[in-house]
């Protein structure tokens, strides 16, 4: 515990009685009033998440001459100023070193948002791949991050911050001034609901947190609810559903790979496309309230066809849900599966993603 990084909002979490636990090298809030209650509140109103554990890097320079473009699976040079794009940092074998979002701040300036547990390795990998006079810096320690998510998040944000953000498109962002500090407000999200992310100086973080929670429409939520919400959408968690042994094609995320450009890992992915996949990611619904756990075996017929990578009890569906990788023959929606581990047996069925289809994400 002594080696964990601490979010600047730790005193706020303790004052609210949050349950804390390690995550990605940080001590983070897991729940306040309860995971199921917080998940439900996000689906109908607005929840506030501390996401200061996420990593942020800044890049300035020529995208092609510096070698920056070649490091990512998505095309970077076509991202318009004021917009972001999801993509991957891959190894030579096409395995996912991290999934991330790149925001175009200006023609030669970018902000890269990465996962907490991979941030240090990501920074070293990207820096080692750059050449020339490009400037690449890690600004994680000086950047606070809050996410407000839920169908009422826009109304709350505009009321608390006294700004209009209704025209900001999905995966767009705005630069604003809030409580005397400069901030970036992006619109992406990890819950399936309408939502925004604040990247702001740590000095303004506490005031922003308190102002949001002073609005009766907003309640704090921890990483437990975040896990439920993202699984109901079929979104991946790095370290569980994605890692360096998994390719974007196996994960069903090939749409975030631009094969028209050169990038690290491209040859391996081209070869995988040609030879075919031996496994693919699926989502499934259990026929009971039992929760499928990571590494439980997935069976179809009499044979082991894969393993669970993530699972939770879903308050929306009132049953266990999960994701895992299975052989292609067991991947079609409607396929019956059996999840097994020691004395545990859970019947399940493959379902299309997202599982939850009533979200406000793009409204």
Structure characteristics:
alpha+beta, Elongation Factor Tu (Ef-tu), domain 3, six-stranded antiparallel beta barrel, 19% helix, globular
Describe what you observe in this structure.
It is built from seven helices and 20 strands. The strands form four sheets. The protein has a six-stranded mixed sheet, with helices on both faces. By secondary structure, it is of the alpha+beta class. Helix 2 packs across helix 6. The protein is globular, with a radius of gyration of 20 Å. Helices cover about 20% and strands about 35% of the residues. Among the domains are: about 5-55 and about 140-235, Gyrase A, domain 2 (2-Layer Sandwich); about 280-350, Beta Barrel (Elongation Factor Tu (Ef-tu), domain 3).
In short:
Helices cover 19% and strands 35% of the residues. It has seven helices and 20 strands.
Write the layout of secondary structure elements.
Blueprint (H helix, E strand, L loop, with lengths): L4 E2 L3 H6 L3 E5 L2 E6 L3 H10 L1 E5 L4 E6 L23 E7 L5 E11 L2 E6 L4 H11 L5 E4 L4 E7 L3 H9 L11 E6 L2 E6 L8 E7 H12 L4 E3 L2 H11 L32 H10 L4 E7 L10 E4 L2 E12 L4 E8 L9 E6 L2 E8 L12
Helix pairs in contact: 2-6
Q: Which CATH architecture of the domain at 5-53 and 141-233?
A: 2-Layer Sandwich
CATH first level of the domain at 5-53 and 141-233: Alpha Beta
Q: How many strand segments?
A: 20
Helix content: 10-25%
What is the first-to-last residue Cα distance? 41 Å
Briefly note the structural class of the backbone: alpha+beta
**How many helical elements?**
7
What is the CATH superfamily of the domain at 5-53 and 141-233?
Probable tRNA modification gtpase trme, domain 1
Q: Could you report the average pLDDT, rounded to the nearest whole number?
A: 97
Using the alpha-carbon principal axes, give the shape: globular
Q: Which blocks of ≥5 consecutive residues have pLDDT under 50?
A: none
User: Secondary-structure element sequence?
Assistant: EHEEHEEEEEHEEHEEEHEHHEEEEEE
Q: β content, as a range?
A: 25-35%
């Amino acid at each position: 515990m002594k080696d964990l990084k601490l979010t600047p909002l730790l005193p706020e979490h303790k004052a609210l009685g949050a349950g804390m636990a390690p995550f990605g090298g940080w001590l983070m809030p897991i729940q306040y009033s309860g995971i199921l209650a917080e998940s439900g509140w996000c689906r109908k109103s607005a929840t506030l998440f501390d996401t200061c554990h996420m990593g942020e890097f800044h890049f300035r320079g020529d995208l092609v001459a510096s070698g920056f473009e070649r490091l990512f699976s998505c095309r970077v040079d076509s991202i318009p100023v004021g917009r972001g794009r999801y993509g991957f940092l891959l190894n030579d074998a096409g395995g996912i070193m991290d999934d991330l979002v790149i925001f175009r701040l200006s023609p030669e300036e970018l902000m890269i948002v990465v996962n907490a547990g991979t941030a240090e390795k990501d920074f070293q990998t990207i820096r080692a791949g750059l050449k020339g006079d490009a400037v690449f810096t890690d600004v994680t320690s000086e950047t606070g991050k809050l996410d407000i998510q839920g169908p009422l998040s826009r109304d709350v944000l505009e009321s608390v911050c006294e700004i209009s953000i209704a025209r900001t498109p999905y995966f767009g962002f705005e630069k604003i001034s809030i409580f005397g500090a400069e901030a970036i407000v992006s619109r992406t999200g990890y819950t399936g609901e309408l939502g925004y992310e604040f990247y702001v100086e740590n000095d303004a973080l506490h005031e922003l947190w308190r102002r949001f929670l002073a609005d009766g429409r907003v309640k704090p939520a921890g990483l437990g609810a975040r896990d439920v919400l993202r699984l109901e959408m079929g979104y991946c968690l790095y370290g569980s559903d994605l890692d360096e042994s998994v390719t974007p094609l196996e994960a069903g995320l090939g749409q975030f790979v631009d094969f028209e450009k050169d990038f690290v890992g491209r040859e391996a992915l081209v070869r995988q496309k040609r030879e075919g996949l031996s496994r693919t990611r699926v989502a499934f619904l259990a026929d009971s309230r039992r929760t499928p756990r990571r590494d439980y075996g997935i069976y179809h017929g009499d044979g082991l066809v894969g393993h669970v990578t993530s699972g939770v009890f879903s308050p929306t569906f009132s049953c266990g849900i999960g994701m895992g990788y299975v052989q292609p023959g067991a991947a079609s929606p409607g396929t019956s599966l059996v999840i097994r581990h020691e004395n545990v047996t859970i019947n399940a069925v493959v379902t299309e993603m997202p599982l939850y289809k009533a979200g406000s994400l793009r409204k």
